[in-house]
Amino acid sequence: MSRYIIKRIVYIFFVAILITVILFLLYKSIPGGDTARVFAYVDQNLKRTNPALYVIKMQEAIEELGINKPDIVQYFLWVKSVLKGNLGYTLYTNEPVLQYIKAPLGNTVKLNLVVMFFVFAITFPLGIKSAVKKYSTFDNSVQVFTIVGMSLPSFFIALISILIFSATLGWLASNGMNSGILARSNMTGFERLLDSLKYMIMPVFVLTASSLAGITRYVRGAMIDILSQDYIRTARAKGLKEKVVIYSHAFRNAMIPVITILAGWFLGIFGGATITETIFGWNGMGKVMFDALMQGPDYAVIMAMNLFYTVLGLVGNLILDVLYTVVDPRVKLG
């Protein structure tokens, strides 16, 4: 396996290079991209307060970014800068991109880890029970629920949640991540935690509800296929308890096709849910990307996040291959 992993790391390296070339060429093809990048490196307030210094800073930014040099030179300067951890500056706050996305990344991971817990806790037992009780009233009810769940877009679930729990009942806040600095200044640590959880409930509910249907159907389908196999009938004929047959024999093998969809969904915890985060004003990666596209656009942030998602996807596929061997020892990586 170690040999395979080394090969995949080399593969990831070359694919990452190709992706950076494509991203850079796309960036260069955008009219005004270079100008926006230079502006992001310079505090625009200087243009009003100190025009002479502003001109000097603009020239320094042009030299640093290599804007006046050939494209190939600019590309290598950009790659060198990225490898040093300098992904540029945001266009509107003149803040280093890494610093700018640090808090949103943490918020997105925190939100989605909670969502992941509830999704796994609900979908796995629900999918397994539906498969075991195939075509029963319970299974038919679950199928209706999942079809409805897959048909409803996340923004519709979010708006209905706001209408019921915020506008009508007044139980939950509909926007933001907490009650604000002034309100929290008089709170104890435990009260601040409860305050944050109160604002997290609706985004968690919407993201969980949006994910339940698809994953439940995947688990059910995989379990139905495995439960019809000969070795399951043999295990039952030996007199093994039904729970042992289902959870020790069937479920582990059923996880092989399920892992594929779960791995892609798992990677999404770093990407953020653009629609949900924007509706609820949750300062996460999805909202950051939306704001970067709508305001400007902010090319440095967009390029940095695309690069981040590219590397995340490549590493995620490697982890996915390794997980196959953990779930099924028969899978060999060559």
Fold and architecture overview:
The structure is a single chain. This protein is mostly helical and 334 residues long. The chain folds into 2 domains: 2-83, no CATH class; 99-327, MetI-like fold (Orthogonal Bundle), CATH 1.10.3720. Helix content is 78%, strand content 0%. It contains 15 helices and no strands. It has helices at 2-28, 33-41, 46-49, 51-65, 71-83, 97-132, 137-151, 154-168, 181-184, 189-227, 230-237, 242-271, 274-279, 285-294, 299-327. Helix 7 packs across helix 10 (189-227), helix 8 packs antiparallel against helix 10 (189-227) and helix 10 crosses helix 12 (242-271). It is flat and about 85 Å long. The model has no long low-confidence stretch (mean pLDDT 81).
Short account of what is shown:
The chain has 334 residues and is mainly alpha-helical.
Distance between the termini: 7 Å
**Uncertain ranges:** none
Count of the domains: 2
Considering the protein shown, what is the CATH homologous superfamily of the largest domain?
MetI-like
Share of β-strand residues: under 5%
Overall mean confidence score, pLDDT:
81
Report the order of strands and helices: HHHHHHHHHHHHHHH
Q: What can be said about the biggest beta sheet?
A: none
**Fraction in helix:** over 70%
Q: Which word captures the global form? A: flat
Radius of gyration: 25 Å
> How many runs of DSSP E, i.e. beta strands?
0
Q: What structural class do you assign from the helix and strand content? A: mainly alpha
Number of separate helices: 15
CATH class of the largest domain: Mainly Alpha
* Reported CATH architecture of the largest domain: Orthogonal Bundle
Find the CATH topology of the largest domain.
MetI-like fold
